[in-house]
Structures are given as structure tokens and as C-alpha cells.
Amino acid sequence: MKRILSLLVVAALSIFSTTAQNLENSTLWKIEGNGLEKPSYLFGTIHITCNATLEDDVKKALDETTQIVMELDMDDPSMQMKMMKSIYFKDGKTLKDFVSEEDYKSIDSLFINNMGMPVKMLEKVKPFFLSSMFFPKMLDCPMQSFELELTKIAKEQEEEIYGLETLEEQIQVFDDIPLEDQYADLVRMAKDNLEYDKETFSKMLKLYEEENITAILDMMDDDTNKTVSEHQDVLLKQRNENWISKIEEYAKDQPTFFGVGAGHLPGKNGVIQLLRNAGYTVEAVLN
User: Fold this and answer.
1) How many Å apart are CA 222 and CA 229, to the nearest integer?
2) How is residue 37 annotated by DSSP?
3) pTM of the predicted structure, to 2 decimals
């Protein structure tokens, strides 16, 4: 359960992005140069999917590296406890303090129809946790995850797993986004019973299968989703910039396999370009 909860947080954060630039269609990239003795690899994931089977080139990259670094340390035994401390408002506020009676009824219907329970049981939960509960509902199949698959590989290869940021840092990202925008998106989800979100996620899954990370990026400017379109600096740009020094540190220590949401890779503020700006050669691994 701790991994599922953390995956939903990661999913809420990591499929968002900024201005696009054209890149090869690839989710796997090799990092070389700038003093690295051996190459490391950068893999763009999608956090919830119908098929998290790793391709042969990804498996080869995992064999050539000696540690795995993801957005979060998915094997942290304290994650569940930290998560549970973070999901509730601490000032006594509830859902009813932020939405109209009519919108409350819509959200309640959304939970009853999709979760089999009234939202009253979750009134003190922060809005992005409420929204992220519906991510598995975007799929028409049992949920799989590349993060869980990478965690499994790490255990099989007896390798350490590390994170580029802490759970607290990920939670803070949404704490920094105005609540009115987060609730506006939750109300929108309720009004059309997830129709827009299911359609959008289906398109994103197709693009991911095509490894078209630039097109995934282009989808993120749709202002239907306020949390994404109006707060990309917080969701992506700042986080990507914060990751670069950590990626450098891990890669210089030993050959490392980095797995982060595919939306973090492309764009002028994406991890690929930021690593190139720092002097590294970052090239697509093409099938």
C-alpha cells in the first residue's frame, strides 16, 4: 500500500511539463562525457499503465549500471507513515470550506460512483490526494507501474534504490499550488465523471507507447487542467533544476540508472537539455 500511495503522488506530479523542443522518439537516453568514467542512463517512465514490461534496451541499461535512482526512494520503509501524516489539513479545514454545496454534491457522487463510498469520510484530505485517488480509474485494465518493476529489478540485482527528492519535497510542491485551482480541477473531474481525464490519459498512454516524449510535453498546455497549465514552474521547472546536481553526484559515483516521469525529459527546462547545458552528452538509445 505504501508504494501505491507514493505512486499516486508521483503520478500527480510527473506527467506535467513545459515548452517543448523536438527530440528523437525515445524514452531511454545515455549520459556520457564531462568526466564520467562509465555511462549512466536516463529512462522516462509513465507511473501508471496497463503494461510496464521493460524493453530489451532498458534491461541492458539496467545490467550496465549498479544502482537505481527514481524520483522517490520507493523502498523507504518510513514512506507510508510520512504519507499518512501529509494527506490531511492541519488547520481544521474541510472540503466544505472550499466548494459550494452544489459542487460538494457532485464530488460526493463522483466518490460514490467510482469508489463506493461518500466523500464525507475524506473531507479533511487535501485536494490533490483526493484527485490522485482516481488515477487508477483512468485505466481500463489492472494498474501496472514502471517504478514497481524497477524496484523489483533492483532487488533481483541486489542494488540500492535512491530518490532524487524526498516525499516531503514532493508533497510541498502541491502545498505551494493555490487550493482554489486544485479544487477547481477536482470539481471539473466530478462534473463530467472523469470523462476528460480518461480521454486525456488514453492519448498520453498511446504517445508513451510510441515513445514520443515531445508530443507528451505538448499535451500539457491544455488550460482545462488549472493545476498543470498554470503552475508548471513549480511542478516541473524547479524540480528538474534541483535534480541536476544530484544526478551528477550519483553518475560520478557509479554508473546509474535514472527513472523519472517522461514529462521531465523534453523541453528547454527538461532534464535532457539541462544535462547538456551542464556539459554532458545525452543521446537517445534507439531500437
Assistant:
1) 6
2) S
3) 0.89
